[in-house]
Amino acid sequence: MIDRLHPLSILIYFLSASLIPAFSRNPVLHTLCLITGFLMLFTWADAGKILKRVPVFLLFFLIISLFNPFFYHNGNTVLFYVAGRRFSLEALLFGADSALIVIGVSVWFISLSHYMTGDKVLLLFGVLSTKLATIVSLIMRIIPHYASYINAYRKQQKLMGIYGEGTFLERLRAEAKIFAGFLTWSLEHSMTTADSMTSRGYGVAKRKSYRIYRIRQIDILIMITSVIFILLLGLSLIRGTFETNYYPVIVMQPQGREAILSESVYIIYSLFLTVKHLIKVNYGFFENKQSKI
Amino acid sequence: MIFEKYYILISLFLIAGSLAIVFSRLDKRHTGVRRITLIAVMTALSIVGRFIFASLPAFKPVSAIIILTGIYLGSEAGFLCGCLSAFLSNFYFGQGPWTPFQMVALGLIGLFAGIIFSKRRFKRSSFRMIVICIYGLICGIFYSLFLDTWTMLWTYGSFDLKGYLAVISAAIPYTVLYSLSNVLFLIILDIPFGKRLGRIITKYRI
Asked: Angle between the B172-203 and A168-199 helix axes, to the nearest 10 degrees?
């Protein structure tokens, strides 16, 4: 369902769900962000693929959390001394908290770049500028084309005996030769592309970009929910509900009614699109206009 | 004050907003079809360059190709090439909240290359080569410092000089390697790109 949403609602939803916790200083919200980010991964990737990424994230976590205490020494609880400098518990926890949210946002962005396919990116660019959308679509066409061309070119050079064996310097020279030929060809080829674009009518009338996605009821629902969520959590962010001070001792704002309320709002919001995929429910009313083909 | 607490939020919004404004103004200026396809080719080349050197950290021809685009095709082309190569290559190397910062940094590198060399685009001299190399060196340092500011704001939420120095000092090998690779690639690529682009530009009246 998520991949059929309008790109604008996807963008707003993912950015608000990942970035609002990132701007707070609250370990609870950060942990929630990481967990819901992982659940979001399960909507499109299988478990084996996700488990493969976990060691990388753990390594990342260790590096970021250990980086902080080596540079900041102003915590009160000293664990041990490194080269005469204090290695404090507070700095370590601060680093761990930072690592948590950096990884949480990265996990959310993995899902975002899965759901933001090329056509959706093109649509968003086309809203801003049609010229930009033209360039982006040209680039997306050019890259695979070039890759196949350069392989064919290299094979041909090899058959002619120009490229292949020899010392490192000789092979480097052959590579440079291939690159030079490829460069000339790619620039000339772009002129052919430009001419055929002109002859097919580029620049004759005002250009519009083609939009395959329409804003449906479900998109309006998601956008309204997102705006309400951003206002709610933004307000408690500004009021300092989530503040945590780390130096010199850890002082967390008491988890009062407001903080717990905001956190449950976050849980509901961040699982809003995930739940449907995980337990396969149908929103019915909002989707009944969709074709059944 | 609230504005001191949310540096990163505000800077992210400012940068994304200014990029959106610049992009929405692009259609007002007329750019020929051939120039558009050339920009696309140069951007594709810089993205492919990032792919080829993906295994080596910081040793990338991306900025060099963006600078050359700015020099030979003008500042608008340089800006577009920088922004788009950061944005599109990040689909493979990882999108994140840092993407707008990378887009602005690389875009500005291309933009200023176009402005600095607007008078002597194809005049070949050793003085020009030296200026290009110095520009590449400065760009490498600028790019690293710009993204270090981002790292600082992102991981600590606020800006203070001590933390900034820590982040910079941790990134010194990266900065040095990056700047030197810029200079190296500029020296290697300037003549082949200049010759071919110059030929295309005179042959097809761009």
From this structure: 50
